[in-house]
């Protein structure tokens, strides 16, 4: 056999070996398609989740939703013995983010969830206590605030407290004041929560 024929056989053998080893283009195709189908981190391709709590009357009082001026939405719901969860809606992606835990507790839920939005800032109030849904006062009262991409929540928990009644957001969205009669709790953008008064 001449030198040209030998080179041809060696080249053909190398190509077969490469295909059998998984290095050929026909093997790479499916892995690329698989990567393309994977959900990117932080994607808004989930459905809106709901509470799993059915006691104490209408279960819709154990979830809440608020719409921001730019079309985004924030939804919160309680999960029994698991705490408070949040999702945000992207009008561009037309879907919800993956449910994320904001506060974890095994205490019974209390009353509803208050959500307020202004100037890109969202404030939330949620409460827990044993038998609270039957009228007992809260024992765990959570104040929470998120801004920007709404992926991170600043939290302040007050124990043995009857719970915040409302949250007021300034016009520029840089400050939130949680109120219950004479009691005050302030949150400031860039600084977080101050002491409860």
UniProtKB/TrEMBL annotation:
Q: Does the keyword Signal apply?
A: yes
Keyword match Signal: yes
Signal sequence coordinates: 1-28
**UniProt keywords, alphabetically:** Signal
Disordered: annotated segments: 25-45
Identify this protein by name: Uncharacterized protein
């Amino acid at each position: 056999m001449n030198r040209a024929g030998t080179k041809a056989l060696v080249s053909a053998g190398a190509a077969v070996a490469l295909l059998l080893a998984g290095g050929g283009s026909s093997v790479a195709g499916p892995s690329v398609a698989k990567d393309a189908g994977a959900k990117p981190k932080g994607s808004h391709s989930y459905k809106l989740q709901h509470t799993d709590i059915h006691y104490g009357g209408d279960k819709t009082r154990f979830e809440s939703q608020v719409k921001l001026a730019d079309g985004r939405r924030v939804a919160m719901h309680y999960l029994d013995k698991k705490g408070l969860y949040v999702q945000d809606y992207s009008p561009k992606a037309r879907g919800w983010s993956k449910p994320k835990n904001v506060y974890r507790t095994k205490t019974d839920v209390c009353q509803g969830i208050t959500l307020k939005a202004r100037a890109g800032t969202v404030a939330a109030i949620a409460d827990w206590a044993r038998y609270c849904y039957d009228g007992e006062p809260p024992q765990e009262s959570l104040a929470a605030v998120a801004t920007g991409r709404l992926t991170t929540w600043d939290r302040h928990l007050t124990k043995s407290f009857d719970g915040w009644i409302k949250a007021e957001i300034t016009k520029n969205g840089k400050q939130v004041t949680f109120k219950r009669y004479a009691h005050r709790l302030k949150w400031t953008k860039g600084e977080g929560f101050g002491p409860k008064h």
